[in-house]
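Tutorial handout. Part one gives the primary structure; part two gives the three-dimensional structure as tokens.
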Amino acid sequence: MKLAVCITFILGGAVNQGFSWFFLAIPFAIAFLFLLKHFSLKLKIALPIFVAVLVYPLTWQHEKNKIIYPYLGDQFTASCGWQAVQYSRDFTGYSYETLVPKGGKIYDYYVISKRPVPCGSDWTLTRVFVKHPDLSTLYYPVFSIGGSEMAMSGYELNEAFASKKLKHDQIDTSYELQSEWTKSLSNLMMWPVAPIMILNQLRAFFHFLNN
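Part two.
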């Protein structure tokens, strides 16, 4: 049982898209190795190999990993009027052009160049990277459009979905870009704050009962 718990948390660290990445899974990796001392030599060799085989495909190139982001390669349907704005890297933190819908805010001070996105272009999701403003997790989808890769933040993607300027048959928010089961595993890396979260929930529950 202890071994299974350790392996589960190791897998959680492997797919973690939060700011801690694999760091908070290290104690479970150490515990896993410590528990192996009770096993035979064959299992001491076989079990780490087994875990490595499980972990490797989960850690490989997160941005382009279809296990984590199953909609990679999918086509999205965009309305007309989008622009591709090249901001300075100091402003965005990335080198891609930024997709801005018709009527969207453009920060002219940081603009290097801008051009219209041809209407009716195919938008193919090629990768998803993450940033961590205020220790949160924000997804940044990158689309291939007319041979160029262009990005937008998860906030902008959510607004585009809500306004119907961008559509996909199966997802409606940026948080659905990640597969549910890897997201659940990734959430295990919140274990240091789990006692606080449980305590807050209990306080809210008893406060509700008292009122």
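Part three, for discussion. The mean pLDDT is 89. The CA atoms of residues 157 and 163 lie 10 Å apart.
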